[in-house]
Each structure stands twice: as structure tokens, then as C-alpha cells.
Amino acid sequence: MTPAATAGTTATAGTTATAGTAASSRIVATARIVADAAGGLPLLVSDGPLALRRTRAATGAYTRVTVVGAMSAPLGGDRLTVEAEVRDGARLLVDSAAATVALPGRGAEPATYDVRLTVGDGGVLRWLPEQLVCARGSDLVMRTTVELAPTARLVLREEQILGRHGEEPGTLLSRLTVRRAGRPLLDQEVAYGPGALGGWDGGAVLAGNRATGQLLVVDPGFEEKPVAARVLAANAVLAPLAGPAALVTAVAPDALRLRRVLDEALGALAPF
Fold first, then answer.
1. Other beta carbons less than 10 A from residue 142's beta carbon
2. Which of 9, 70, 175, 209 would be 189's cystine partner, CB 3.0–4.6 Å?
3. Do 123 and 153 form a contact (C-beta atoms < 8 A)?
4. HEC string of 146-192?
5. Three-class secondary structure of residue 180 per DSSP
């Protein structure tokens, strides 16, 4: 399944379940990654549209896995899950080959996309997927849950593009929950699009912008050198979190300008 996998790496294909008739069919898929301190991937499981590939990292300090879309997903009714475990002392970079595009399905049921991440003591996870694009008519519930050991470090980027060029957005409900040493660090939920409550496109939220995102950096080093709150750009702010962590939140007219702001913050906050 993964020609580039090194010795000792297990890469297998999971099973994609299709349930119901043509009118109510859906994809149920779970992809799994486990990284160890020796740079190996004891578990690398692709499933359905979630194809995992071990790829070459720019620095040898990280084991890199790239998510490659094997088919169009998520569509309405699909149930997709990605699970990643970074064992004690391991360093893992996960990115994606292209943007994920949420599309409408044949029925009214929303799609779900769950991301479950665990990082052990001394472990580092850089979770840097490409943008999530919510096409017109789509309905997606995305949940990201992170469990961090006390000395774990995390870089997590989320970017949401509401509608493809020139089209109205789909509906997106997104929740990010992060716990460190078993205690809550961040728990937030946002909703955009025609299925969200009124006000999502107003001046207090997106103000007409169609690209929004955030960068979360958790680093025990912030305990000695806390991050100061500041404005990074016209529509981007940096806020310190108790934890220790820093959160950059930004909105922009398009994906390119959003990425520029987040990349600048990434270089400043997470040199590791």
C-alpha cells in the first residue's frame, strides 16, 4: 500500500463500508497512524478515501505522513475518521496532498469528519493539513480531539474556506477540544453557512470574509517565556492560553492571504 514505507512499518488498507440504497449510501472509513521514537510507523492504515503515504520530510527530525485523497469525500452522510498516536519521544509531521472538499450528498444527512490525536511525553506532533473547502450545498460536522501528555508539544493548523470561487458556502460545524495532562486546555466550537445561527457572516464574526483559520501551538517552553497577546494583521490576533499554549485566529478574503498570516505565525511560534 505504501511503497516508501521503511522496514518495520506496517501499511495496510482498511475496509470501506457502504450502507443503504443508492439514495442513502455512505462511506464509513477510519485511517490510523502510530509513530514511535525510533522514526518508525508501527501502524499505518489507509481506508476508503483516506490514503496514507509515508513521505520524505524536509528535516530528518520528523517522520512524515501525507494524507492523499483516493476519492471525492466527504459527501453528505459519510463518516470519516483519522486517528494518530505519537508515542513518547516520537516526532510526527502529518500533512495532506491537496485540500479536502466537502460536497453535498444524495440525502439530507450531514457528513462527519473526526480527527483524534494523542501525543505522549516528549513527543511532538505537527498537524498541518491543507484547507477544508465547504462547497455549496454541503453539510459537514468536523470534530478534532487532542490528548497531550505534560511534556508533549503540538502544532495544529485549521483552515476553512467557505465555498469555492464565486459560489455560496456550505454549512460547517467545527469543534476543537484539546486536553493537556488530562485537563482542558481549549474547547471551542464554530458554525458557518446557511445552516448556522444568524450572525455568522456579520461584523463580529467573519465580516464578509470567506477564509478563516487558526494555529494552535502548545509548548512547555511557554511556561518560562509566555507569549504576549498582540495583533498580527488587520484580521488576525495572537492570544496566549493557560496550558502553556498560544492561539492565532485569523480571517481573510481568500485562502492565499489566510495561509500567509498563519505561516508567518508558525515560523515565529514553532521553530521546533
1. 23
2. 175
3. yes
4. EEECCCCEEEEEEEEEECCCCCCCCEEEEEEEEEECCEEEEEEEEEE
5. strand
* pLDDT 10s digits, 140-168: 999 999 999 999 999 999 999 999 988 99
Q: Which three cell numbers stand for residue 64?
A: 512524515
β-strand 153-162 against 132-134: which pairing, if any? parallel
Residue 216 CA from chain centroid, whole number: 11
Peptide bond connecting 74 to the previous residue in cis, omega within 30 degrees of 0 = yes
User: Can you tell me the distance from the alpha carbon of 131 to that of 96, in angstroms, rounded to the nearest whole number?
Assistant: 9
H helix or E strand, kind and range, residue 262: helix 255-269
The tens digit of pLDDT for each residue in 17-62 reads 444 443 457 899 999 999 999 999 999 999 999 999 999 988 789 9
DSSP states of 231-259 as a string? EEETTEEEEEETTTEEEEEEEESSHHHHH
Pull the grid cell for residue 227.
507569549
Element (H, E) at 256: helix 255-269
